[in-house]
Structure formats: structure tokens, C-alpha cells
Amino acid sequence: MTASLPAGATVASLTGVSVAYDGRLVLRDVDVEVTAGEVVAVLGSNGAGKSTLVRALLGLTPVAAGAVRLFGTPLQQFGDWGRIGFVPQRVGATSGVPATVREVVAAGRLSRQRRFARTRPADRAAVLDALATVGLADRARDSVATLSGGQQQRVLIARALACEPELLVLDEPTSGVDADNQHALAGALGLLVERRVTVLCVAHELGPIGPLLTRAITLASGRVLHDGAPPTADHVHDHDPAHAHPVHHHLDDGHASRAWGLG
Amino acid sequence: MPDLLQPDILQFDFMRRALLAALLVGLAAPAVGVFLVQKRLALMGDGIGHVALTGVALGFLLGTAPVLTAVVVASIGAVVIELVRQQGRTSGDVALALMFYGGIAGGVLLIGLAPGGTNANLLSYLFGSLTAVSRSDVYVISALSLLLLTLLLAVGREMFAVCHDEEHARVSGLPVRTLNLLLAVLAAVTVTVSMRVVGLLLVSALMVVPVAAAQQLVRGFRATVVAALGIGVLAAVSGVSGSFYADTAPGALIVVVALGVFALTSLTAAALRRRRPPAALEGLALRPGQAG
Q1: What is the arrangement of strands in the sheet containing A167-171, beginning at the earlier edge strand?
Q2: Is the minimum CB–CB distance between B218 and chain A shorter than 8 Å?
Q3: What's the pTM value of the predicted model, to 2 decimals?
Q4: Which among A219, B81, B117, B125 is least surrounded, fewest beta carbons within 10 Å?
Q5: Cβ of B171 and A60 within 8 Å?
Q6: What are the pLDDT digits (tens) for B123-181?
Q7: A243: pLDDT confidence band, cut at 50, 70 and 90?
């Protein structure tokens, strides 16, 4: 995974963005900027606009006002989607027809492949590497339907990693995931942070990914309530900026490797 | 296969045409159907079949080939269904129902207006007919099925990604809208290509049942496709051959054979699950009955 951008370069930005669903504003005049190498959480209660923020950033939800840029390019003109890995908010990795773990993860490689081109050895290697990163290399040939909910979530993360992204966007990756899989997920994120991948993660509760964060954005009623140092794990449920204070050990190696063992 | 294809049925021109058509339809219908099932739109082929009936009747009314008008009308119908689906409104369900009933009513109404037309003209289109496959039908069916299979082979990877997770596919930069519309049109083409053999009312079964049968026994998407095409060809060819001897409409026998294969594979799958030790069922316990 390459992080060609210098630290501090703007990876993604929303400027004065408002989003409306059926005439109701769910994001109001939001300014957010994510720079290379940051690990940013988007926090807030249900309905605060967390998911809408990342959906607007990725063009999945039209904006009513404001400007969105990815890697310095306005969203409408952006076409370099291989630089972005996305883990949508989704229950399970199954569809109406069985698919192997490897088939699902390989779909994440398409953004780096030319249309109608044959799959190259580099593409296969990237898919296997992504599976290894989430600790599911030994399940590559299994049907995703035979995996637990938490393992399926890790399959979706591997799919996002298959394009070797510079920016990884995750929408509530830990919701409904058991503790073991949350630790495995945090372990995978820890490896990415080491590779200098920029991470933007929507979360209802932080759990084991808390120590990885360099910054947190808290939303309330579609506005940015707080943007700065991440809260400590103890106070994450409060969503109260008064409780937030800096976490210095933003990559706890011991923690990450312990989590890795649980994969 | 040699048991099913007694040499005597190949002595008849109409049977040779019907068997060639069955072979192509047996490949094309599950090839498109697998993506519809993946998107959980298994009944879309049924809806398109209803709309195609209006196209068939329009052909009689205008004095042109019903297959051609059916392709056009079914494609328009399929695109409208897809656009309604993309809107994602809850009323989309009702909108689809209106189209299905409109398709049948339009067909019956238009055939009544056609000079000398009666509902009997529609019957062979509704249930399929061995003698109905003309030489020009074979050309149309061959050209369209080969085009369809080539297209799916070319965009299969991308189509899999879109049907598996549309939002992820959009963030991967795939032309999601175009692929969705392509699938809708391919489904319409499949319906019209298959209607001479299977019939409009049963064509959706040939798109869906082989896929349902295949996925009982395999773990992956590619394996499902290969198995579904095999089951589709088996059902179509043996159904057409059998209906020659039994003197029945081929569509019904094709679907009965496909359902028979489904019963066999699901029983086999159930037996295999019972024999496997519980430790191997780790993940399955969370999602009982999940087919895929």
C-alpha cells in the first residue's frame, strides 16, 4: 500500500456542505478536512449525520450546498477511485447467490483494473494480501455465508483494502460485531496506520479502535460540535467535548498485536 | 444425453430447430438469471414476461414479427422497471404491479383488435410450442443469445460487483447505472428469446430455478454460474425432447425437470449438512437457512 502523499496534504474536504433528505436538513454547513496520515473518527448519536457526512464525501448522497473535494479534485471530476477503499454500512457480506470470500474481496480490486483486462498476478497478490491483513487468508475459498457476522465485516474490510487505498472510509464497521472481531478489526486498522493509510471511520462507539485515533469529529443535529483530539475510551459514550482530551499513544503496538492474535 | 436424444426426433426439421433453440435458451436464461437472483430480483423476469405479451400482440396488430416487437416493448418495460427501482420509493412495488397487469391486459386487448386475432394466437407465446420455432426464429435466437453470453462474459466481473453491493461498486468507480440498465435489457432479451420455447409465463422459471438448484451444492459465484448453465441446458433440452414424445407444451416439462433437479440438489445438500460434524457449522448456526 503506497502513501505517495506528503504528510499534511489534504486527502478529503467538505466545505460548507449541507445535505437534505426530503427537505429536511441532515447536514448543515459542515466544514471538514482530512489530511494524509490522519486517523479520524466521526462520532455522534443516531441521526447526527455521521453516515451522511461520509456518503456526501463519496458522492453516494447528493449535496444541497457546498463543495466536496477528494485528493484536491472536485468530486464531480474525481475518477481515481482506486485511491479510496470503502466499507459501507451493511449487514453481512452475502447476496442472493453464494460467493466465496475471495470472490467478494476481488470485487474491491476492480477500481485498480482496466475494464475487460485480464486479472494480473499483481491483482491476485493484492487480494490475498488484503485477506491476510484481516486474518482471513485461510477462509479464501469458503462461502461468505458460512462466516459469522463479524468475520463477514472483516471480508468487507478486506474488499476495501484490495485496491491498496490511500484513504480508507469505514461506515460503522464495528456495529453488531462481537468483541473478538472488533479486536481483529482494530488489529487490521493498526497495520494500515503503520502503512500510513489515511482513515476516516464513522463509529457509534469506538471500542478497540479508540487508541488508533489521531482526531475525532463529533456531530450533533447535522453540525460539527467538536473537531480535535479524540476522546479516551472511557468517555466515548458521552459525546461531550468537555470530556475529550488528547490521547498520546495513538498507536498502541502491544494492543494491536494482541488483537492480531485473535484473528 | 444420448438416451434423451433418440435419433428419430432429429429427423424432423422443427425438432432440430427446437433443440438448438433449447440449448441456447438453456444457457442464456440462467446466465442472466444468476445476476437477478444475486440482486434479489428473482421475479423481474416474470414482470418482463407480462410486459412482453403486449409486444407480441402489437406484432400481430402491426403485421410485423411478434418477436421483434416483443424485444422492443419488453426492453422498454425492463428499463422502466429498473428506473423505478433506482428511485427506491416504497411505491415502486405498486408501480411494478401496475406494469405487470398492464402488460397482460394490453396484450389481450391488442390481440382482440388485430385483424383475425384471437387469444389462441397468444397461447403458444404463453406456454411455448415445439412447432413454433421457425427458421428465422432460430437465427434471431442464436444471434441474440450469443451476443448476450458474450456481453456477460465481458462484463461479468463488474456485473458481479454491482449486483453484490451497488454502493461499493459506485465508490469503485464502476458505471453502476449503465450496468443496471444493461442487465435489465439483457433480461428483456432473454425473456423474448426464450418465449418461443419456454413460454412467457414460465420463462422466469428457467432464469431462476437452475440458479436456485445450483447454489445448493456450491460455495462460490463462478461455480454457481457453471452449474446453473449445465442445469439450464439439461432442463431445456430434455424438456423439449420429452415433450415431443409426451405431446405436451415444452415449457411445462422444462420447468418440471428444473424443479426436479432443484429437489434433488436441495435434498443432497440437506443430507450433506447432516453428515458434517457440528464443529464445521460454526458460522452457519448464526444464519440458519441462509442460501447465499
Answers
A1: A84-87, A167-171, A198-202, A39-43, A215-220, A223-228
A2: yes
A3: 0.86
A4: B117
A5: yes
A6: 888 888 888 788 888 888 899 999 999 999 999 999 999 999 999 999 999 999 999 99
A7: very low
